[in-house]
């Protein structure tokens, strides 16, 4: 999955957020058609049984700067599924103690050949919204006392239906099953073995994939339907 999200102020996105039964909004939700890696994005997590929406830097690993924090030199806007159970990896502890979800309208993919972009696609929910499974971490600057929140999206092997769009990976798309979402957000569940079935590529809702010239200009070049599994 490439580093852009579509979180427009859409009725489907708002309905999904209402269904998540968020109890605390510590920040105003961020809405934008083009949220890129290292930008702020609104996530939903649970602390002490309270479900809350916070804004986080979309880059899991941060490091102290002069005044607060900045993204680490190590790329971490995505966390690969095969690193989740590797002790010492960036997402190991977060997968056990601080899982989150990111409600969105869709996400973007760029296919590269020899490190050059071949084509760009935006994928959005045909109806409603999508829910991305992710991780988050809290940071404290020991010198200034400043705090920061960061997040990443978990990525899986490429999905067969999306191979022609992006052949490297696919995002963890969580089914809109609120009982499952509640388990995912439950910080008391520290043994993630029950989440193993989620770490297989799956498209739980119908998507529309639109080919564009590039994200900055966003001229449509055609679209296709991607049906749910």
From TrEMBL:
Keywords: Hydrolase, Protease. It is an enzyme of class 3 (hydrolase). Coiled coil: none annotated. This is Abasic site processing protein. Transmembrane segments: none annotated. Its EC number is 3.4.-.-. InterPro entries: SRAP. PANTHER family: ABASIC SITE PROCESSING PROTEIN HMCES, DC12-RELATED. It comes from the Bacteria. Belongs to the SOS response-associated peptidase family. The keyword Glycoprotein does not apply. It comes from Arsukibacterium indicum. Pfam families: SRAP. The keyword Chloroplast does not apply.
């Amino acid at each position: 999955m490439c580093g852009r999200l579509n979180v427009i102020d859409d009725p489907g996105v708002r309905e999904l957020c209402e269904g998540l039964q968020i109890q605390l909004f510590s920040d105003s939700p961020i809405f934008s058609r083009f949220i890129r890696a290292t930008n702020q994005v609104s996530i939903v997590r649970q602390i002490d049984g309270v479900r809350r929406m916070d804004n986080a830097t979309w880059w899991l690993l941060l490091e102290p700067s002069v005044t607060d924090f900045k993204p680490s030199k190590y790329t971490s806007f995505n966390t690969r599924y095969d690193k989740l159970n590797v002790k010492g990896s960036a997402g190991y502890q977060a997968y056990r103690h601080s899982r989150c979800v990111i409600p969105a309208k869709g996400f973007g993919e760029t296919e590269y050949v020899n490190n050059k972009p071949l084509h760009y696609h935006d994928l959005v929910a045909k109806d409603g919204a999508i829910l991305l499974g992710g991780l988050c971490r809290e940071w404290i600057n020991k010198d200034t006392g400043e705090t920061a929140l960061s997040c990443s999206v978990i990525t899986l092997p490429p999905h067969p239906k999306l191979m022609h769009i992006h052949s490297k990976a696919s995002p963890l798309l969580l089914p809109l099953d609120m009982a499952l979402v509640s388990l995912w957000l439950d910080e008391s569940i520290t043994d993630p073995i029950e989440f193993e079935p989620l770490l297989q590529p799956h498209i739980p809702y119908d998507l529309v994939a639109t080919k564009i010239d590039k994200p900055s200009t966003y001229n449509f070049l055609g679209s296709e339907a991607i049906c749910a599994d």
